[in-house]
Structure prediction request, 335 residues.
Amino acid sequence: MTKALALISGGLDSILAAKAIKDLGVDVIGVYFKTPFCLRKKKDITTSTELANELSQNAGIELKIVELNDEFLAIVRHPKHGYGKNINPCIDCKILMLRKAREMMESLGASFLISGEVLGQRPMSQHHPALDMISKEAEVEGILLRPLSAKHLEPTIPEQKGWVDRDKLFDFSGRTRRPQMELAVMLGVIDYPNASGGCLLTDPLFSKRLRDLMKFGVYDMKNVALLKVGRHYRFAYDAKLIVGRDEAENTDIEKLAQDGDILFVPPPDLAGPSALARGNFSEDQLKLSAGIIARYCDLAGKLSIDISYRKLPESDWRVLNVAPVPDEESEKYRL
Ligand code: SF4
Prediction:
């Protein structure tokens, strides 16, 4: 049986493309490239492991998960083809993922690749010249089948060789989602995980934080992980505060703290966030930080409260008694 490797993004289109080709009698394996900018788990977003389980149960497709770390950070910093609306380097990202998929083909015994792109669906990377250029730069011309828009595109090798019947492929184009929704019902792909993918690089707020990190901080995996957590405040080029928004984020903040950071905690008898200060903080900035943290504490009627902090890895706690900082003051520093 002919084998193909399908790029699975977590969005509906890539799952439909893979399932459609599987239903034509091709042995399809999926690959999910996990980048440092995939969303943290939320109620409506699946993790890559959950995606693998869903795909295996609902579509009978085995999913390989491949992490792209430093090389992905590099293309986000200097994308050859520029950014989309936010800090999303979609063209460079697709080229990188297709190249990686091409490199995996031989060991998996795959004869071609599948992707879920739809002509004209996204302004930056899915118009005709962009699709051609992406295939060319990734060196996958002829071996990349885009089943959802295949009838608008030149026949690929799997179609020419008869491994896939071109007549059974699709002619979707443009931004409407209706054909995909109908196809999902036809193929029995009902319980799909997340119809819009889940890349933080398309999020305006996250883009602002990331640009700030590239400008003032150390742009590495650890600092990128921290961008996904909490409320962020920048007081100076080398002084940034991150305040947890819920219990889970308070735990994440404590896990992501490293030597040299200052960790803040609220009084044990009052509910409130943990926070982390990274950089060089003056006494005034420490006080301001404690005041911002107090703003998110349950004050139980008090005008001021004690916020404890310690510099890691030291074990000595210090205490600042502070009143909550008003929102109009804290918003000046908010990222
Ligand atoms: S949205 Fe994110 S993951 Fe998707 S192509 Fe663009 S950069 Fe890549």
The pocket of iron/sulfur cluster is lined by residues 88-90, 93-94, 197, 199, 201-202 (CB under 6 Å). The chain has two domains: 3-200, 229-333. The mean pLDDT is 92.
